[in-house]
Structure formats: structure tokens, C-alpha cells
Amino acid sequence: MRTPQASSLQMTMRLFVALMMFGVFGVGCPGDGADDDGTAIDDDDDATGDDDDATGDDDDATGDDDDATGDDDDATGDDDDSGGDDDDATGPLTDTVIFDFEGDAPTFTGFGGAGASAVVDPTDSSNMVAEIGKGAAAETWAGVTMSACEGDTVAVMPFTATETSLSIDAWSPDAAVPFLVKIENSADGSQFAEAQGTVSAASAWETLTVDYSAATGGTFDPAVTYDRISIFPNFGTSGADAGGVDKNYYVDDVWFLGTVYSTDCPAAGDDDDSAGDDDDSAGDDDDSAGGGDTVVFDFEGVAPTFTGFGGAGGSAVVDPTDATNMVAELGKGAAAETWAGVTMSACAGDTVAVMPFTATETELSIDVWSPDPAVPFMIKIENSGNGAQYAEAQGTVSAASNWETLTIDYSAATGGTFDPTVTYDRISIFPNFGTSGADAGGVDKTYYVDDVWFLGTMYSTACPAAVVATGVPITFDDSSTTYSFVGFGDASGAAVVDPTDSSNMVAQLDKVASSPTWAGVTISTGGALDSIAALPLTATDLEMTVDVWSPVSNIDFLLKVEDSTNAGIFIEKQATFTGTASTWQTVTFDLSAPFPNGQGFAAGNTYDKLSIFPYFGVDGASGGTGTFYVDDIQMAP
Description:
By secondary structure, this protein is mainly beta. The protein is built from 1 helix and 36 strands.
């Protein structure tokens, strides 16, 4: 917080009112809830969207003991204490601080490519603030949910028809940047309101008043339970639109403007019942998982992908016991194998976001329903990149045709080996595991599953960005890559140990006395000879760099990229090694200015072949010979 100078009259009034209101309030939150949807304009809790689901990104938090009960931080300075506050940005002894970021930090749940943490104020080393980072690839709706209580919540804010505002202190690296602040009901994400204020100047703190009576999104209703706050810096502008670079914004002193109220978190609770759960579009309050846990699947909105095996299959259907709830139906056929089951996924390759198991956080929970009693459900987790890395554990439904919550503990794995350092990004469920369809009576059986939770650290279930294979970088150090060298003009190449660093591998290129001026080597990494994965060249990104070691200074190297299936499509660029002889230098090849051949880049062409010509333009008979080394062939940073 920043501390101002108070007048003697202010000090007198503060003392008087503090004495009158001694012990008036503490700082508090409701029970268990769901999760913010990650978008400021949509709350559709789907499996591929951004709210409390397999790919969501702001699923519930763990809560903390944020010091909202008393602090001295504010936008313009105050000397708030446990008996109230006299922040002069919000009015003396009438308002309530929700977050000031002093002491224990709140929980930050980022979504859409944003994240946050409590840091030292960039303008005042004695003050703590929230730093919100919005990445270069962030969505227009990227933001952060801030919470001090279970389920990404805060104490219910006592809005009325006349008390309709919050205030926040905001700092932006750029001028004219809007900050949108969303309030919502954690139990029903369709009940929300959004309003915003705009920072006028760059790199300066400003206090923004956000008035929900003029909501720009959702509908403000003071009768609604508003117990969640999310902040969206530079709302409506993507990371790409903001220059394609990471941006840091700062927030301090989030205040409720009006009635003084307690922000204390009450005892956790939920309203789950024997029928399963009361999950809705905003998330789930199943009591199998506390406010610090993360829902992986709840089957609301867009369904996950179901991949059946062994005679089983799955789909998202209406809960057989609750027409307002969606669940997964797993069918095990009359001819199904003992190991029949279904892999559920929300990301590419039958995967989910990596589950952050640890030595102490080893459990999942699921709600299950079986037509028969004493039926085991086995849940398998595995590394999608290495099927030998897996763990299996199970729980058993005790009663027929009834919802039960099973806790699956991988520290007592019944199959495979549990290792918390493994990348577990795949989940498969085996209903009535160990019993074939024939053994189960030779008839089709239907089982139901709902609310798959990770029990432990809150984490983002957003799908990782797809990995696009490109031809670079070529480092010669990747043990999973086969490097091939095809020489021409009596030149040759091979992967060898770096002559200056025994821990590094490089490419050795040799040019001999019989070599013509154009002798060189084609370097390949692909399955097909003379090819690499396609280079990510674009009209605005055509610079490449190569680390070069030469026994001779001031000699030319030529880099040529071409279509491996069409020799008529190519770009080549000549550049000079100007470094000291027998040392490494990074040489830049600007393909936007091709030379000596003038054929340039054309969108739509494929460039998946790469060749290097050492000592280009001088033949071996004229002295253009030697052993040269290259390393780290890549796009220029």
C-alpha cells in the first residue's frame, strides 16, 4: 500500500470512528463453488472451452488466508487497521478492502493466456501488489480470478440497488487500456455482471471505479450471490494485437464501495447429495473434492472425446437420476473383454492437461453409478508419450442404481507403477473391471460416471498448444533424431563432437582439393533422405542463423533451402564468416534478400531441404579447402 499524509482533522475523525467501531468487522468467504469461465462474455462450461472442465482454465482454487481483515494498503494511501479502514480513495470508514496483496497472497487462477502473482510494487518497494501477465499469445478475454476462499471465491459482496461499485488501483505499461472486472455467482456462472474502467496514462497508478449499475456484460442483480471476482487487463485485445509480446499489468487495493462487511471465509460446505451432484454450467460442488481441487471432467457443455476399447464405448447423456445434469454413459457390451473401457480426452491425441501428481497428492475422485452392486471401477493414468509409464487403481460401488463417490489412490496402485515425476496426461475408465460381458450375463450393461476430480493442487486444465513440427532448430544433439549428410562436389559431412566443447555435437563439413566452387552438403533430419520438416518461413520471417567455425576468416558460406520434391523451388543466400579463424561465430542469412540467385520466397511453397556450401565460390584447387563446423541452424530470434 501507499501511505499518504493525513490532515489533523482526518486523524481526529479516524480515531473517533475507530473507537466507535472497534471490533466491527473481520474479513470472510463462502463455501465451495465452481469456477470462472475464463471468458468475459461467455459462461458455457464446456469441455473445450475455458470454464471448469477438461480444457478449462480457471477451475477452482485452494483459497488462502488473505489479510483482507486489516491492512494499510490503498490506491492513494490509508492507515487501515483491523477495526475498519480510512482509505481516502474510497471514503473514510465506510468501505471494505477485499484484496490488498499484503501478507498472505490470494490465490490467482489465470485463463486465456494470463497469469498472476503477488510482487513488490514497481513504484514503491514497501508495497505489495498483484502482477498480471498477459502473454504474447493471450486471448482477448485473458484474465485472472482472485480468491481468498475455497472454490475460487471471496466472501459474498453485499451489493444493493444503491451500492453497486468496486474500485481497483491499476497500472498499465500503455495508455488508454481498459480493465474489465467481472463478478459472478460461483454456483451459477450464468449469473454475472461485467463493468470496466480505463487507465488513461502509461506507467502510472490510477484508481478505477467499476459500477455494475452500468454493466457492459451480463446482468447486474443485487439479489444475486456475487462471490467471485475476475480481472481482465487490456480486455478485448489479444496478445498478438498488443504487439505479440508479453505485457505486465499491476493491480492493487480491490475495494467494495459501501457497507462495511466481514470478508472472513466460513467453514467449507457443499450441497452434494446421494444422487451424484448438482453440477451446472458454472462447475460443480460435489463433496468428493474440496475447494482446492480441480475438476477434470464434468460432462456439461461440449462433451469430451470417448475412445472405447475391448467392447466398451462412451457418450455424454442426461443423468438417469437428474434431468438437469449431464454425465458420461459407459456401455459394456455382451461380448466385451474383461479389460473393456473408455479413454476420455479433451486434448489432442486422447489426452488431458498434465495432472500435477506429487508424492502426497496421489488421488482422483469420480462419481459412479452401476446397475449392479459390488462392481469395481478401475481408473488408469498414463503418459501418452510412453505407454509403459502408467498406474492403475480402483474403487468399488457398493449399491446398485445409486450414485457413489469413489476415491482412487495411486499411491496404492494395483497395476503399473506410480511415479509422481511422470507426465500423466491420459485417463481411461474400466467399468466392472475384470469381468467380461459373458461373465456379466451375456447382456449389454450401462454404467455412468460424473465429476472426475484431481484431489490436490489447483491447476489449469487448458490443453497445451499443439506442437508443430518444423525443420529447425537443428542442433545435432537430439538423440531421438537421425542426422544424415549427403555431400556433392566431393564435399562430405558427419555429426561429430564440437572441437571446442566435448559436451556438444556439431556437423563437420569437409571440402577437398578436387571440390568445385559449389561443393557442399545437404543436411537431413527427416525420414526421407535429403529432407527436414518444413521450415516455418513466412513473408515477414525469413532470417535464419547458423553457428559457423572456420579455420579461415573472411570467407563466404551459402545457405540454400528448397522443396525436396521440386528442385525448381528454392531460396539461397550468401553470407560471410568474419570471425577470428578457428572460433565460432553466428552468421545470419537473410532470405528476404536472396543472393547470388535472385529467386525469392513464395507463400504456399514448401521448403523442406537444407544445404550448406562452405568456402563458397572458391574451388579446392584455388585453396578453398578445409574442415568446417556448423551448429544450431535455426530461425533468427
